[in-house]
Design goal:
The structure is a homotetramer.
Chain A: H1 2-14, E1 24-28, E2 34-37, E3 53-56, E4 61-63, H2 72-81, E5 87-91, H3 94-102, H4 111-117, E6 123-124, H5 133-143, E7 149-152, E8 156-161, H6 164-186, H7 195-208
Parallel strand pairs in A: 6-7
Antiparallel strand pairs in A: 1-2, 1-5, 2-3, 3-4, 5-8, 7-8
Protein name (chains A, B, C, D): L-ribulose-5-phosphate 4-epimerase
GO biological process, one term (chains A, B, C, D): pentose catabolic process
Keywords (chains A, B, C, D): Metal-binding, Zinc
Chain lengths: ~220, ~220, ~220, ~220
């Protein structure tokens, strides 16, 4: 799991979702009340499986030579309250964060967005770092939507998945649709997709797309 | 053809037209009612000639270890109805998809656009995946235009060519002009090019540009 | 000179000024009425010094296995009428071409623009390819300005320099300032720089910047 | 220090903050009234520790084979008047320079901005190169703000830090937030962060983030 989580961080760099040391990926260790997460303030170039740290579901450091990510409490809160989640990603990616700075959900106007997010990408509350406020805002917002991504007001984006890889995919797709819908709206009105079509696209994508054994 | 189609996928990555596993290229096998296409939901990093799959013109899998792209029906419809087409490309590239989300054709205001597209890049209908609706919308729209690219409303872009490489070129140029015209329009009105000048540019480019033996 | 001109094409790719086979660099052969230019429609990956072609100042092919760039007539016109020019570059770079699609000069609101261009980047006329119209439009526009770059309406940008490298630098800086001024204007009015300050910046940069022996 | 300063220049290239030879990094030599800075007008590809030059705090060349950066006087002025500064960076990065071209400070509407800049990124005066005007404008503006970055009107951005690396980090984060806030503002109003929350975020980030021994 340390190796997997470490390798997935390079996808954040490849897709331009992070600057300097911002952003982080975590993954739940299957069958244990533990998760692996990025150390705090370490350069992406310097990440190796050995620098990854292990925390319990209260966010306490259990194993590792570094202090855990300053967003660890938010990851831990999600793992505590959503047992189906196996991976969490956080970034300040440009377009998603821009919607978040206006406190505005991203409307579902692209079939790729219906596929992956099943509707709008919702906006969560403003919350200060350092306690359970971010985690609670995330879980409360996720419960009302099919979207695996939540924009946190004035902050950035968190995504979840059954695996860390699925959460990274959601982070990549979130920025991609945040950018495309932004660009579309710059020159006029976008055409909404009817709810029944969103449902049809979401159902098909979740059940038919990709190879049988993996998503 | 598997090797050619596989290699062309890396051009989609190089030009930033695709995110994660979205997008696909196909190529007709000369002299046979078959075409090669990308497998569904496989990472661009993992594509090799052996992972490419072969389908018949009804979109049925004929050869290959993977399920074909979920857009296979649209590719097959084009090959069935347009015998002159040897390659098809589909992407959700940002700027082309943004025009598509507004349901707006891209006006011909650049000489490079007159060269390659012979006029505006048209907009096709909203259509759900899973049957012949996308293919039919594409073919109907292509018939009324010289453009090898069609924007599908709320979806993305499909391009055609005599070869898969020509279709990839059209996809690259489509995003390039979609971006430039978008940027131009952000700060005011663009100057149209007179139809007679569009015709002159298109004729010259299709017949004179490049080396004699290839386009 | 073939080696120099070939190598400079990779700068156009590095700075994202060109898509597919668009764009070209040429360089006058010192002491001769000849210049080296890119072959027409050849991929940037496939350019080698041997693929470069040599033309006379009327744009006729003198040496080389390929047809010369379709913009050769415009380059030749500049070399014929401006003996001080040793290099010419042409691109359809996004932001410069966007200003060109509106037929609008780029105002001088950045000190880096005063340094390199000595004022606005002017707009030249709409002109069809295939004769001397583009070249004449370029030379006429260059004569009224200090700028080594001209935006050709609905088309793209041409830059000149004492050497091919200086022309490439002007093409890179032109796109850079076209982008920054575009972005600045998106959210309101830009502050002009007083003409006397533009003169002071231009004079200093042309005479003091860089190492003594080279620019 | 020459090695450190040389290596940090590649971060400016990696994050796309500089075009051609623009931009520069300097670092104070601990315990001496000297600093290391980039030579003027040398390509980023050609920078090696040996090409770096050493200047005294009046900006005079003390050691090195090249003329120092044309921005050396501004760096020297900062080192003379702000003894706590160990590194200075200057760029014309696109989004920061766009705010500067409008003469507009960047409002603090992102938690990442509160973390790093402790409030708005302020705008300094228009000042001509060649004397102490730029340096004076910078130091005067820095004194009224917690921000390690200042936008100089019509020019670009300067950042400071306790080390050259911290100044480079500030330059990277400045462009990142300049871009995100720009994008946010394009589609409407951004939500301000309350001053008490900005204070809480800034205090926490400056004191808790990262590993104990380094920032």
């Amino acid at each position: 799991m340390k190796k997997t989580v470490c390798a997935l961080h390079s996808e954040l760099v490849r897709y331009g979702l992070v600057a300097w040391t911002a952003g982080n990926v975590s993954g739940r260790i299957p069958g244990e009340d533990l998760f692996v997460i990025k150390p705090s303030g370490v350069s992406y170039d310097d990440l190796t499986p050995d620098t990854m740290v292990v925390c319990d579901l209260d966010g306490n450091l259990v194993e590792g030579d570094y202090a855990p990510s300053s967003d660890t409490a938010a990851h831990a809160y999600i793992y505590r309250h959503m047992p189906e989640v196996g991976g969490v990603v956080h970034t300040h990616s440009t377009y998603a964060s821009a919607w978040a700075a206006r406190g505005e959900a991203i409307p579902c106007v692209l079939t790729a967005m219906a596929d992956e997010f099943g509707g709008e990408i919702p906006i969560g509350p403003f919350a200060l770092i350092g306690g359970d406020d971010i985690g609670r805002g995330l879980v409360d917002t996720l419960k009302g939507h099919r979207s695996p991504a939540v924009l946190m007001q004035n902050h950035g984006v968190f995504t979840i998945g059954a695996t860390p890889k699925a959460a990274v995919k959601a982070a990549v797709m979130c920025e991609d649709v945040a950018r495309t819908v932004h660009v579309a709206r710059q020159l006029g009105s976008v055409i909404p997709i009817e709810p029944k079509h969103i449902d049809a696209l979401y159902d098909r994508y979740q059940n038919v797309y990709g190879q049988r054994s993996s998503k």
